[in-house]
Every structure is written in structure tokens, then in C-alpha cells.
Amino acid sequence: MAFDEVKTEGFKQVGTRPRRPDGVDKVTGRAKFGADAYAPGMLHAAIVRSPHAHARILSIDTSRAKALKGVKAVVTRADFAEGLTGDDWDVLENVMAGDKALYDGHAVAAVAATSALIARDAAKLIEVEYEVLAHVTDVDAAMADGAPVIRDGAADSSVPAGLHPNVVRYHESGHGDVHAGFGEADLVIEESFRTEAAHQGYIEPHACLAQLGPDGKGELWCCTQGHFHVQKLCAKMLGMEASNLRVTASEIGGGFGGKTTVFIEPVALALSRKTSRPVKLVMSRSEVFRATGPTSSTSMDVKIGMKKDGTITACQGVFRLQGGAFPGAPMEFTAMCAFAPYDVKNVHQIGYDVMTNRPKQAAYRAPGSPMAAFATESVLDMLCNQLGLDPLDVRLKNAAKEGSKASYGPRYERIGLVETLEAAREHAHYSAPLGSDQGRGVSCGFWFNHGGETSVTLALSEDGTAALSVGTPDIGGSRASMCLMAAEELGIPYDNVRTTIADTATLGYNEVSHGSRVTYASGLATIRAARDAVQKLCARAAAKWGIDEDAVIWEDGCAKPSGPNAGEFDPLPIAEITAEMGSTGGPIVGHFEATPEGAGVSFATHIVDAEVDKETGATKVVRYTVVQDAGKAIHPTYVEGQYQGGAAQGIGWALNEEYIYGDDGRLQNAVFLDYRIPVASDLPMIDTVIVEVPNPGHPYGVRGVGETSICPPLAAIANAVSNAAGVRMRHLPMSPPRILKALDGD
Amino acid sequence: MSMIHVSTTVNGDEVDFVCDPRETLLDVLRDRLALTGAKEGCGTGDCGACSVMVDDRLVCSCLMLGAEAEGKSIATVEGLAKGEDLHPLQEKFIEHAALQCGICTPGILVATKALLDKNPDPTETEVRYWLAGNLCRCTGYDKIIRAVMDTAADLRKAS
Amino acid sequence: MVTVNLWSGLRSHVDGRDSVEIEANNVGEVLRGLVRAYPQLEPVIAAGVSVAVDGRIYAQGLTQPVAPDSEVFLLQRIKGG
């Protein structure tokens, strides 16, 4: 058998919908999340945070806190490593402020005590003297002349001369001649758009339990999307060797990109090092809002030219993203994704990464892409409306296909945008009548997806069952998919595979669970590790039969002679081979350690109907359909779940969610009551259509699905609301006051 | 601060604990009684992840003091299953994939059981409004609502 | 020689051009060749780039072969959430 074969049909288990292996743990309360860990002698920690948006730290007096009974240690920036540079320095500076507090909520000190209540009391006794500085939280204001400078010299070499020092990175790309392209158009529309910062909104606040002794060896338990990355970052910040810190990923209560870095983990480790006791640190919800990464807010200008027949002649966009008080706003993705669904000869896009006095942005599901789609797809909707064209026909007419030159440069491999558009057009939703005050919106969305470093082992037990260890935290049911893929390859029942998220001491490096990479990359790794194990199983059978290894095939969980010439032998089931493996060559373990690079980009098309109450400005999403290319759905139920979850998060971002800052630069809505994510009564059922256009870069054709699902909703909902209200909405979220203002023509 | 002694019943078992008067019922359940099924998602009663029953009333345990549990009967997610047998809601949540990360699941299960005990035949809208105090960020609620409706139908058939 | 297409933000680093010719047999040689020919690109490449070869995006694979007729694009490093 070919061990590198690509298989896209004839599956026995892949594509079925078994119960997830961690289901009972999750419904009984037994599953252990970040805050569910306890250790004997454990201390509790609390963090002191800046109440100012921008302030120089003049002094920190810890004496009163230290005098409180039960307080064991206080740490400040002086307790962390010096000499870090680049991104590492940025992350440390965000974990614990140095000379300046850069945003409301920035950590300045931390305390460990014998109880959480004492730690909180002690935190209040730490006296920080600040010199308050001028601040800026708005992206356009931060770029303007005279804006307070957050960190001079932070700009890299990409930034053209003459821009404000808060502009720290610049991107420009495109091809063709946009001026000529606009000249060919029958209609050109240029509009400006804004989106506000939304938080990932995972329900589980960051939590960890750290233990670091005087021998320099440490243990860390935390909720993270990537414990290997946590190990690397923490080791640098504590000035220790990475392998001396073993990190175990807890069950994770949502991440969506927001748990791809560290916030509290180095702090707990520093406190543990000072006290030689385990230290538990759990964020409150308001700390999560104030001090962990929301997404960027944006200010965007998009210009598109179109012929009367719907042909897009040119696209141009300028995308300004603020990423908080550090470089890193994903403006290059906003720029590169903005026109990616379309085959356009003339395209030009510019991105600005702008620093403000806000928390450091963190990745949020397809970072940068949903905002781009909002701007582009809004303008497309306006063009279709004015030219009297069907919005899906126009998108189909211009849709990128295999071989099309992407707006960001290269030619596409096999992609499935056309298939999602055709499925959307055929869906009953698209032709269903609308009620009064209702409007329909559509949008396409694009995301790159990612592979990344991946290490997996698959160990066979004597009874022929399999223990699969992966290093990518399971953020949405991925263990079920891994079990399915391993079972498919080994030809054993799904329940005979157990998948564990292994700690950093057990596997080689695994990149974070991000970039929609888990089912793609850990899945590919699982398939290849299983094939590695099967190859070894076949070798044992060949040795037993005294025939060539090449003359043995693997089918339905058994080794078999490849044909009559190979000899007459009864099939040898896996359990018979593993039962004697100790005496036929030793344990049988399949491995995969590599960096899969064929993630395969993905596209989605969403249809949404919205009803707008013109008296109150309130919007109700009345019908929602997600059509997306999954390449191959390993566990279709969890693929649907990703589609529905992405749509729901997009609905929140489009209609309600935003970071609201006061003139004092303080975040005004750092609780769920005021930062309102969608609740059950806000949403309709979310219909899903799984399109499968196999990704040539995966043995089963898998494309990541987690992120693309949040790319179209902002635009689709904005188009639906604009069509329902009869007025174009250019600023998200479309909260009732903004809709009323737009209706008033303001 | 002096501790308070509290006698209560949790999932049918008599339990005694001491706690600081500032500790919430959620703190006590998790940190003193090792019942970590109820989760703290917000600490302000907005997310419902800490939902428990107190004398047959659904409450956010982060909004009630531990000391207030004196003489009360508390039911948490840990008491839903009977021995090896999961509660029908637990079965249906797994079957429908009504959870992704699972952090909201304990609270949603407790809240849903309270609904079905009170109203065995809820409409979809009633389920959605009942669960409006339980935030889920992963699922978009679709599969949760389906799991609840399906459980309710099964329970009605069985009764 | 391989034609390496650059994003236009890099034009100022490479004498105003959109693409440059580099002697290379794999992605790593492309990146090293770029830095050798245009030292101004060093910080850009050090900050992290992806390379698309015939439409497939390589975020890390320096050993990926490239041929003289390969379509090669330098892209900013692809990450995700």
C-alpha cells in the first residue's frame, strides 16, 4: 500500500458523527478546566492594574501589602528577565508594565497570599504613584498630527517617512493598474467604514496553576490554545531553560485566538519562584476585558469599479487598524483578504498598523479578515443595488477559481468558492419571500488557514487499541476528529482509539491551535502516524509469514497478503500482532514530526435575513444560512458547530459588541452585562451547508473550518440591515442608537 | 475575619463547611467542597456558568454568599447523573454535540433541567428565553436548543 | 534563476521593482538570496514571511524546492486565531 496516498472517498468512519470522547467529562462537571486545578500548599495571586490609559510609573510601594497577614510575595517588572527584544519584549511588557502603564488595566504588580480574598485585599494596599500622560484610543486620532506618542521608535522599516510615530507597520500590495481599471468601470463607488474592537468573549477567564522551585524546574497548568508556545514564552520571561518548564494544557473554555499568548502565566511562575509554593492565578471577567486581547478596531476606505454586466474592473482599499499599545494589528491580513474572493485584474491595498492606549490586540478568528469583508462586500452590495444586479450572480461572475491570480499575489490551487456560491443560490433561503421591515444580505469570506509545526505519536496497546497523543489543545471537539482519522487508517473501531492532549514533556513542539490548523495539521499528522504504525504492523506480519514486507497490505484492521503470489495466509488482525509485539521487535508506535504546509485556503458564502425596528433601531436576525467549503468534513456535526459558532460571533460583532472608551481612556463596559454577546433569545437556528472541494494538501482533502466562518457575517448582516432599513450602515456594531442615527440621515 | 460555620445539603449529602462571610456559594462549592462543575465565567451573574439549584430555585451561585446556604438544599451538575446513568439531558447534549468547549455546559444543563421540571413542553422560544441568562460563545445555541427540545420530547413520551 | 514577486510595500527596498531574480533551488535559498542581493530586506524577512510557490503558501518550509518556472511570491507571515 502507498503510505502517502490521498483518499477522498470510500471512507468507513470519516464523515460519521460519533459521540465525542470527552463528552461525559464535559456534561458531568468532571472535565478539568484552567481554574479547576488545586495543589497542596497552594497560594492565590491577584494583579494590580493601572487605572490610567497612559501614565509613567514613578514608584511602587509594596510595604503595606507585604505587611498584611497571609501575604507571601509581591512581584513587579524587576522580577522578570531583562534583555528580551522584539515580540518577546512586547509580550513581557504587556504581561507586566515597565516604565509606563500603556492602557487602562495594564498590570503593574502582583501579589501571592494564602487565600484569594487576602490576595485581593493586598493588591489594594500596593501603592503606585503615576504621572498621568495624554492618551489616545481611536485609530484615526492616533495617526493624526499631535497625537500622544505611545512609544517612539516602535515603527519598523516598512513605514514610509512622514507618518506619525504611532504608525508602526505598513503594508502595500496589489497588481495591475487600478486607475485604468476604474476608467473601464460604468460605476465606481468609494465608501469609508469603521468597525469597533470586539473581544473573543470565551466564557472561561484565563487561569493557571504554577509551580517553580529553587532547582529551576517548573510545572505549569493553564488554559491555552498552545502550551508549547506558553512554555517557550514563559521560559524566556523567567530566564529559565524551556525544557525545565513542563506545561500541561487544561481543558480550555474557549479561545478563538485570544488564548494564543500569555498574560498571567509568567506572573504566577514568578510568584511561585519567590515563594517556592504553587501559585494559582485566575482572572476576573473585567480583567479579561481590560487586559487581554480584543481584536483591532478599524477605519477603512474601499473603492470598487464595476461594469454594467457586473464585471469588477478594479478594487482599492486602505485599512487602518489599531492594535493597542503594541505593534501587531493584523492589517496585512485585512489588506490581503479584502478582495481575495474575486478574480480582479487591477487591485491595490494598503494597511496601517497603529498603536493606541488600549490592550494589546490578540488574534480573533481569522484575524483582520471579517472587517475587510465588511468594507468590500458592503460596496459590492451598493454596486449591485445601483446597477440592478443579483448579488450572488455578480459574485459568481467574478469569483476566483483554480488558477485565478489572488488579490494578494499567487495563483490559487483548487478552491471551492464557486461551489459555495452555487449552493447558496440554490438554497431555499435565497428565494424565500421577505417580511416587512426585513432585508436580505449576502457576503463571501476568505481565510488563508495554516499548517504549522506538528508532532504526534500513536502507541498501540497489546490488545490492539490505540493511544493517540497530540499537542494541539482541543478547542472545539477535535479529539473526536482525531479518533476518527486514526480509526479509519488502522481499521479499528472509533472507541478503540483514545486521544490525549499531551504535555510539553511528551511530544515534540506543536504550534498553537490557531489558523484553523488542528483538523488539518494534527489530522494529517494523525493519519501519517497511523500509516507509520500500519507499516510496522505489516512488517511484523511479513516476518511471521516469511514473506516480503511489500507483499503485505492492511485492510479492515488486518494484515493480509497482497495477492495470490504473496502466499496463502489468513488475515492477521491487529490485536494478534500487538499481543506478541514485545517478542517480535518491541512496542509499535507510529510517529509524525513535521510542518505540514498545504493548509489550503477556504471560502464561505453567508445569507442572512434581518428585521429592523425603525422606531427602536433594534435588529433581529430572522434567518441565517452558512455555506462553506470544508474540503472534507471529518466529523460533520462539529464542522456545522464551527459554522454556527462563527456566524453567532459575527452577529454579535455586527450588532452589539464593542469596546467603549470614555474620554478618560478607561474601558466603560468591562462586564458581560454591558459588553453584550449574543444570548439564546437573540438568535435563530443557523442553517449550514457543508461544501466539500478537497484540499490537495491533505490526505483526506481537509481544509480548516474554524475561522472562515466568521469572515462573511459582518458584511452579510450589514447588507441585510442596510437593505431592511433603506440606509447604508458604515459603522459596526449596528447598535440601536447607530441605526436610529443613520435613519435620521446623520 | 472570623469564619462562619454552615450546615447544608449538597446533591443530597449533608455537608458542613466554614467560610469567610465574603465568600460566594460558588467559591465555597469549588474551593471548599471540591465541586468544580459550576464555573465562574463572570462573577456578576451575567453568564450563568455557575448555575445551581438552591431549594429548587435556579440561582447564579456567584451572586449568593456561602453563608446563605445554611439549611438550604443545593443541587449542582455533579448530582445530575445517577450512578452510571447520565440524565437524559446529558445524553442528548453529547448526542447533538450541544457543546464545543464545554465550559458553559454545566450551567446550561442545570438551568435546562429546571426548565423541564417546570415546563415539560416548552416552545423553542420559551427555551431560548429561559436560557438567555446562560452564555455560550462556541455553538451559536443551535445544537443546544435542539438537544433541549429533543430531550423534552423524549421525556414526555416516557412519562 | 527564479522570479520572486514581492508585495509592493517592499518596492522601496528593491530599487522600485515588483519582482527580482534570485538564484535558488528552494525556499530557504530564495530568502537567503534576497537578503544577499538586498540587505535592506533582512529585517523584513527576519520578522517572518511566508512564501507561496505555485499557489501553495509555505509559512515555514525552507526546504521546499523551487524551479526556474515556479511562481514564487513573498507574503507576510500567515498566522491565525
Give a description of the structure:
- The complex is a heterotrimer of chains A (746), B (159) and C (81).
- With 746 residues, chain A is an alpha+beta fold.
- Chain A folds into three domains: 23-31 and 454-592, Aldehyde Oxidoreductase, domain 4, CATH 3.30.365.10; 36-134 and 200-291, Aldehyde oxidase/xanthine dehydrogenase, a/b hammerhead (Aldehyde Oxidoreductase, domain 3, Alpha-Beta Complex), CATH 3.90.1170.50; 375-449 and 600-743, Aldehyde oxidase/xanthine dehydrogenase, molybdopterin binding domain (Aldehyde Oxidoreductase, domain 4, 2-Layer Sandwich), CATH 3.30.365.
- Chain A is built from 20 helices and 27 strands.
- In chain A, strands 3-5-1-12-9-10-11 form a seven-stranded mixed β-sheet.
- In chain A, a hairpin with a 5-residue loop joins strand 17 (454-460) and strand 18.
- In chain A, helix 18 (636-655) packs across helix 19 (713-725).
- Chain A is globular, with a radius of gyration of 27 Å.
- The N and C termini of chain A lie far apart (68 Å).
- With 159 residues, chain B is of the alpha+beta class.
- Chain B has two domains: 4-79, Beta-grasp domain (Ubiquitin-like (UB roll), Roll), CATH 3.10.20.30; 88-158, DNA polymerase, domain 1.
- Chain B has helices at 25-32, 88-95, 105-118, 124-130, 142-158, and strands spanning 4-10, 13-19, 51-54, 57-60, 73-75.
- In chain B, helix 2 crosses helix 5.
- Chain B is globular.
- With 81 residues, chain C is α+β, with helices and mostly antiparallel strands.
- Chain C has one domain (2-76): Ubiquitin-like (UB roll).
- In chain C, 20% of the residues lie in helices and 26% in strands.
- Chain C has two helices and five strands, in the order E-E-H-H-E-E-E.
- Chain C has a five-stranded mixed β-sheet with strand order 2-1-5-3-4.
- Chains A and B meet through helix 1 and helix 18 of A and helix 1, helix 2, helix 3, helix 4 and helix 5 of B.
